[in-house]
Amino acid sequence: MKKYPLLTVDKIPSAIILANGDYPIHSLPLALLAKTDYVVCCDGATNGFVGSGRTPSAIVGDGDSLSEENRACFSDIIHSMAEQETNDLTKAFNFCLEQNKKELLILGATGKREDHTLGNISLLAEYMDKAKVEMVTDYGVFTPISENSEFESYPGQQVSIFNFSDAIISQEGLLYTLPTLRRWWQGTLNAALSNHFIIYTTGKALIFRAY
């Protein structure tokens, strides 16, 4: 059974992908950004990252939202990919794989346009087949799973479960028994009873733990 600890500032990934959604404001993602050496910015995310006083390890995307100033200043680390088959987040994810970075945190992938937010979150179901990946927001952490998994928690922590694959899902250690999850909302707004809980699944699912 896979085990997932609570995310802390001591969990330094091999790389962070900073997407061009809302720039993080919560202390945890900001601390992770400050402590992680290898940060790949999705195109326009460079503008906020450089504005915070940092320099990205690489800039990946189709170049449509990168400021002219940063385009000129960081031309040597820009990896332009003009094809439109994938979005900038997936381009950055594939770039990290090419650099053998396979323990990844994705930040800045939510906020702004809701369709982009939903698209970015749903991509975790694909990324999980190629890397260990979690998405960190200002409110909590999304973790994709495809097998029975134990999560470190705390009493009262808010937890939501999303069924990605018509899987049979059950739980141990949460306040509410899970119904048959035929709709995304049916597994939301649960809560942990102790310092851990277990999700049993026959397929892909997405777990959200609020801070």
CATH superfamily of the largest domain: Thiamin pyrophosphokinase, catalytic domain
Q: Helix/strand-derived class?
A: alpha/beta
Biggest sheet: strands side by side, in what order? 5-4-3-2-6-7-8-14-10-12
Helix-residue proportion: 10-25%
Number of helices: 6
Q: Tell me the Rg in angstroms.
A: 17 Å
**Count of the separate structural domains:** 2
Give the H and E element order.
EEHEHEHEHEHHEEEEEEEE
Summarize the structure in words:
Helix content is 22%, strand content 29%. It is built from six helices and 14 strands. Strands 5-4-3-2-6-7-8-14-10-12 form a ten-stranded mixed β-sheet, sandwiched between helices. A four-stranded mixed β-sheet has the order 1-9-13-11, with no helix packed on it. Helix 2 links the parallel strand 3 and strand 4. The protein is elongated. The chain starts with a strand and ends with a strand.
Describe the structure concisely for a colleague.
With 211 residues, the protein is α/β, with parallel strands linked by helices. The chain folds into 2 domains: 8-138, 3-Layer(aba) Sandwich (Rossmann fold), CATH 3.40.50; 146-210, no CATH class. It has helices at 27-35, 45-51, 68-73, 88-98, 114-122, 124-127, and strands at 2-4, 15-18, 39-42, 58-61, 78-80, 103-107, 132-136, 140-145, 149-152, 158-163, 169-172, 190-191, 196-201, 205-210.
